[in-house]
Amino acid sequence: MRPANASLLGTTTFRLALSYLGIFTVSAIALLALVSWSTTMFIEWQVQETVEAEATGLSEVYRDRGLTGLAEIITQRSRQDIEGRASYLVMGLDGHPLAGNLSDWPSEVSDMLGWVRFSVLPMGGVGPGVEVLAHAYELADDYRLLVGRSLADAKRVKSAINRALGWGLALTILLGVVGGYFTSRHMLQRVEEMSRTARRIFGGDMSQRMTLSGTNDEFDSLAESFNEMMDELERLLEGIRTVSDNIAHDLRTPLNRLRSRIDLVLLGTPDCDAYRRTLEETMAEADNLLATFSAILTISHAESAARLERFQPVDLATLAADAVELYEPLAEEKDVSLVCRAASDQMVKGDRHLLFQAVANLVDNAVKYTPAGGCVTVSVSAAESGAVELTVDDSGPGIPEESRDAVLERFVRLDSTRTTPGNGLGLSLVQAVARLHTARLTLGDNQPGLRVRLEFTRMTEEPKSSSSA
Amino acid sequence: MRILLIEDDSEAAAYMAKGLKEAGHVVDHAATGTDGLFLATSERWDAMVIDRMLPGLDGLAIIQAIRAAGNTTPVLVLSALGKVDDRVRGLKAGGDDYLVKPYAFAELLARIEALSRRVSAAQPETRLKVEDLEMDLLARSVSRGGHSIDLQPREFRLLEYLMRYAGQVVTRTMLLENVWEYHFDPQTNLIDVHISRLRQKVDKDFELPLIHTVRGAGYTLRAAR
Question: Looking at the predicted complex, does its ipTM rise above 0.90?
Answer without folding.
Answer: no
